[in-house]
Amino acid sequence: MKKNISHMDRFIKKSLHEEEILIKDLINEIIAFKKWIIVVALIVFTLGLTYILTSSDEYTTTSKLLMEQSNGINSKALGGLASITGLGNLGIGNQNTEALPPELIPELVMESDFLKLLLYEKVYLEEVNDSISLVHFVNEYEKHNFYYHLVRFPNKLKSIFSSKVNTEVENNGDPISHENEAILAFDVRERKTIAQLKTRIEVEKEERLLVIKTKMPEPLASAQLNEILSRFLKEYLTKIILDKDVKNFEFIEERTKEAKNRVEQTQKKLANFRDGNRGINSQLLKTEEDRLLADFNLEFSLYNSLAQQMEQTRIKVQNATPLMTVFQKPQLPTVPSEPKFLLLSIVFLVLGGIIGVLFFFGLLVVRMLIIHFSHV
């Protein structure tokens, strides 16, 4: 190294004296320094090789869902109902059914509110010869490369010494209830699982297709996670899209039941009045009978209209259900997708060469500054 530095110093002094750097001389200097560039490159490559060899195999499963969606409940179809019942001020006649934009689905999948549904779903692991929950897998059986453990080693030591304090805090603390749906609350294991699921799940939108990719250390576990994710995604999207429409239907259904009760009450009043005044000829009684009959006809007409609208709305709610057809089923992977040994080896080798050259230029700049200020 001293020989190379002295050779570099002569190059620097010559360049400073002539106030220019010749490209030919610079290239010769790099060639003269090639031994150390190669050493740096090999060090980086060795570190990269350690990462590759200590990383566990990962199997990726891909499936595709075809997205279809009907128009949902048409607000115009409910306009007549709003005018008949006088409920227009409640917004039933002007409700607009807004479907979830497909572009937001990949982002939705990565939200904790969705991923919490997967936490305690089970996948089969050959390593334990049993099906275990994803929380159990991430916290007990997930394998990591050497550098993961190296980076986390200080935190691990810290957690060992502070475990007693943390235990006391957890025992004395007042945890947030999971029953409150407005607030998401997770323990340490669940938070870690959600963070890891985000690295193992990928959802992309391609035209009308949702491409779902899942990654696990075993082929069957990868395929099972893919199937679970597809199933929960369909259910979750259905709930989101139909939530408003179903509430509208339930509201109309309640009004229909109330109208039916009023019809039965007015019908009973009319029947009781006629039974109690049979054979009596009085204009006053005739007028009262006509009034009760008019009330009954009005309530029956309203009930009949509501019943028809309820059936129409029921059909439209069913048609509004988002249809997601399985376009490509999850297929059991046979070859590990990660780590990509050849590709990563080339990447680390090239990266090592670049870092080696940068090391040379860094040393060149440092020596140039030292020589320059030593002659000032």
TrEMBL record:
Recorded superkingdom: Bacteria
Membrane-protein topology: Multi-pass membrane protein
Domain annotation Polysaccharide chain length determinant N-terminal: ranges: 20-78
Coiled coil: 249-276
Compartments it resides in: Cell membrane
Regions crossing the membrane: 36-54, 341-366
Keyword Cell membrane: yes
Example of a GO MF term: protein tyrosine kinase activity
UniProt entry keywords in alphabetical sequence: Cell membrane, Coiled coil, Membrane, Transmembrane, Transmembrane helix
A GO CC term assigned to this protein in UniProt: plasma membrane
Protein name from the UniProt record: Polysaccharide chain length determinant N-terminal domain-containing protein
Organism: Cyclobacterium qasimii
